[in-house]
User: What shape does this take?
Amino acid sequence: MDAENQTAVLEFILLGLSEDPERQHLIFVLFLSMYLVTVLGNLLIILAISSDSHLHTPMYFFLSNLSLVDICFSTSIVPKMLVNIQTENKAISYIDCLTQVYFSMLFPILDTLLLTAMAYDRFVAICHPLHYTVIMNSRLCGLLVFMTWFIGVMTSLLHISLMMHLTFCKDLEIPHFFCELTQILKLACSDTFLNSTLIYFMTGVLGVFPLIGILFSYSQIVSSIRKMSSSRGKQKAFSTCGSHLSVVSLFYGTGVGVYFTSMVTHSSQKVSVAAVMYTVVTPMLNPFIYSLRNRDVKGALGRLFCRAASCL
Assistant: This one.
């Protein structure tokens, strides 16, 4: 096949989680339910934070942005999968696939950087409480969120710009339920050395270094908590960090799980099932973690429901 025919890609084929027609209905209902819970749960978190003045603090500002990112992340993947199952058409156009690749890289980067910003916020609040309002001012919080989006957008654009120069062969079947970058690279006929190098480099810079920053922040937090004489103060400090630490553990745990699953198995189905954890399950669980483990959020949600009930 010559280069001209190779680049004339009109569409890819998403094989999905299962080719068994009997399982398609179950998968559709399951993913639709999880998607609706994800959107509703994260939307409630955003509404509770925006409507309650007690939550107009840096920590909850970052949390509302994290909830927005989780909604967008699921929306960039799940609806297309549901449409393909419902219409029994597994095709996705080249442009739509590029778009999905872009967003499937953007939102995990935003998640990582927002979780890092939240860890820094907790570090300042517990280790430097007297200077908290001075350090974590609205200007710094806005700058951190802006830099998070800027880094995520530019990094994803760089990946896409390299991907657009690739040529593809006849086999355009993607053994996944969405257009994932590494799966797309496997279908390319042209050299993907630059693409792979960029993936490894950015994974180290935007994956490992933020994790190191989070671990360092919590090492300092634990050290400060141990020095507290009041047991009530220790309990309050742990409660404010517990939700964030749980979300960090879930996010990185599922990400590492997907990575090692792809390393130790050649089964594309197992890799796809593992990917469900960080693309669908994690965004769905985050609102529950914050609402169940955080008294302030539970109180804000209660007041939100009371106001909604009084308006009916």
User: Anything to note?
Assistant: The domain at 3-311 is CATH 1.20.1070.10 (Rhopdopsin 7-helix transmembrane proteins).
